[in-house]
Amino acid sequence: MRVCGIVLAAGAGSRFGFPKGLARTPGGTPWVARATAMLRTAGCDDVVVVVGARGREVARLAPADARVVVADDWAVGLSAALRAGLGAAGEADVAVVTPVDTPDAAPQAVARVLGALGPAPRDGLAQAVYGGRPGHPVAIGASHLPGLIADVTGDRGARAYLERHGAAEVECADLWSGADIDAP
């Protein structure tokens, strides 16, 4: 099974004060680098970092082993970054999506959502949940990519599509909080 990891790092971070793709851990590690490393550790064959707001600066923080994709229409909202990332998944059997603002995400969560795809991963959908609350990562089988790309609009992600298509919910609260970071 070929897996493409996707880091969504295109937003302006209006509530955050600057693009989250430029954020760093207290030790100075870029969140983009942490997210990429987490996906690689989890076994992703390819990692795509989607940039938009201040894209050149964010791209410079991406590790050399990641492919950078620009969401030219990033100002439209989350859907633009998601469409760009999913469109770049290429020949992957599964795309695993995570936002850049979850720098504490556990690679074991990726393993769990991938494991929940079942015997036909190209046709599966799975989402990490934390105490029953939907979160990331999300695993999307290749057969769902065209439909999901067509479905997302504005500042909405994949949640409605995942619900309509019965995505498996995979509890991961024992691995980490699942919380995104909204303040610097």
Automatic annotation (TrEMBL):
GO molecular function, one term: transferase activity
Alphabetized UniProt keyword annotations: Transferase
Entries under InterPro entries matching the protein: MobA-like_NTP_Trfase (IPR025877), Nucleotide-diphossugar_trans (IPR029044)
Xref: Pfam families: NTP_transf_3 (PF12804)
Keyword Nucleus assigned: no
Keyword Transferase included in the entry's annotation: yes
Organism domain of life: Bacteria
The protein, known as: NTP transferase domain-containing protein
Native organism: Microbacterium ureisolvens
